[in-house]
Specification:
This protein is α/β, with parallel strands linked by helices. It folds into two domains: 2-167, Ribosomal Protein S5, domain 2; 183-350, P-loop containing nucleotide triphosphate hydrolases (Rossmann fold), CATH 3.40.50.300. The chain has 14 helices and 17 strands. It has helices at 38-41, 43-53, 80-90, 121-130, 140-146, 160-167, 180-186, 202-214, 228-234, 244-256, 281-285, 295-298, 314-318, 321-326, and strands at 2-11, 14-25, 30-33, 62-68, 103-105, 108-109, 115-116, 135-139, 153-157, 218-221, 272-273, 286-287, 292-293, 303-306, 328-332, 337-341, 345-350. It has a four-stranded mixed beta sheet. A hairpin with a 5-residue loop joins strand 6 and strand 7.
Length: 353
């Protein structure tokens, strides 16, 4: 029997809907096609254990899993749940398998059937709403993050049984309700450090106020202990508050990078990133085998602080030239080119000698 469900793959800061097709027929062996990476291929063992410990069976006949479009590389463990639910639908362990195609389902399975959090829940939710899906099923830890997208029912689940009972009409799941504006505006001014903490230092405070007003870059030169790092850490507190659109952009980047705290919603304060001077080119601007945003993108709409500027490798500083001019960084690979936003304010510090 052939069953289709839908998942999502994150590329850059956007998501692409992936069709998970499972066909169970006469024969032997488990086949997974559609350019899955090692983490996706390993899902067979996780799914088998999760189904058995939850009281279901894993078919011993021929199982073919296709992740379409088949020419796009699939990475990560978030496809465990849609594949598992498709297998249950194809073996008629879930009634009404046609209901599966109305939802986008994402989640990583543990061996006991519990569901672990994923990366990129916000862009996945935005894409699901754009394509008019009835709802989105994600791990409970990601539900509030995805629930910021209006006009989409987002369900947070903790165990694969919750998903199966939901499709079997044996259990009702309540969609997550997040008052985005209220949460956003309440958390905007809750700072750990504040510019008003600094006593004296009138000249440098005036210089940083001017830099903040015009979003200018600045370099602080002074002896150790003069307060360069202390002032830089407090700079975001005098920058204008994030707009709702800027907050969504920033949250998408941190969501894709897996940097959002558990049960987080919007990032409401301007980010402050301070990478160590041993950082590599790729870690700063982004990239890797499966391209991820770098420090300059994580500092989007906020402050990137380079402490001890002369200690950074020359090549690392050179790769920031284009992103600083264009306010974005393009990561090009043989088959794909991704754009990550990188509109940041650069503050650096160094000793006079």
């Amino acid at each position: 029997m052939l069953v289709k469900t839908f998942g999502s793959a994150v590329y850059g800061v956007n998501a692409i809907t992936i069709t998970v097709e499972v066909n169970v027929s006469n024969g032997q062996k488990f086949f997974m096609v559609g350019l899955p990476d090692s983490a996706v291929k390993e899902s067979e063992q996780r799914i088998e254990s999760a189904l058995k410990t939850s009281g279901y069976f894993f078919p011993r006949t021929k199982v073919i899993v296709n992740l379409a479009p088949a020419d796009i590389r699939k990475t990560g463990t978030a496809f465990d749940l849609p594949i598992a639910v498709s297998i249950l639908g194809a073996t008629e362990q879930v009634p009404n398998p046609e209901k599966l195609s109305e939802y986008v389902i994402m989640g990583e399975l543990s061996l006991d059937g519990s569901i672990q959090p994923i990366k990129g829940a916000l862009p996945i939710a935005i894409q699901a709403r754009k394509e008019n899906f009835k709802g989105l099923i994600v791990p409970k830890q990601n539900a509030r993050e995805a629930g910021m997208v209006n006009n989409l029912n987002v369900y947070g689940v903790e165990h694969i049984r919750d998903v199966i009972n939901f499709f079997a009409d044996e259990q009702t799941l309540q969609p997550v309700v997040v008052n985005t504006r209220e949460e956003f505006f309440h958390a905007q001014y809750d700072f750990e450090f504040d510019f008003s903490d600094v006593k004296g230092q009138q000249n440098i405070k005036r210089a940083l106020e001017i830099a903040a007003a015009g979003s200018h870059n600045a370099i602080l030169i002074g002896p150790p202990g003069a307060g360069k790092t202390m002032l830089a850490k407090r700079l975001p507190t005098i920058l204008p508050p994030l707009s709702l659109q800027e907050a969504l952009e920033t949250t998408k980047i941190h969501s894709v990078a897996g940097k959002l705290p558990e049960n987080a919603t919007l990032i409401s304060k301007r980010p402050f990133r301070s990478p160590h001077h041993t950082i590599s080119d790729v870690a700063l601007v982004g990239g890797g085998g499966n391209p991820q945003p770098g420090e300059i993108s994580l500092a989007h709409n906020g402050v990137l602080f380079l402490d001890e500027l002369p200690e950074f490798k020359r090549t690392v500083l050179e790769v920031m030239r284009q992103p600083m001019e264009e306010r974005r960084v393009t990561i090009s690979r043989a088959k794909i080119a991704l754009d990550f936003p990188a509109s940041f304010m650069l503050i650096s510090s160094m000793n006079p000698c």
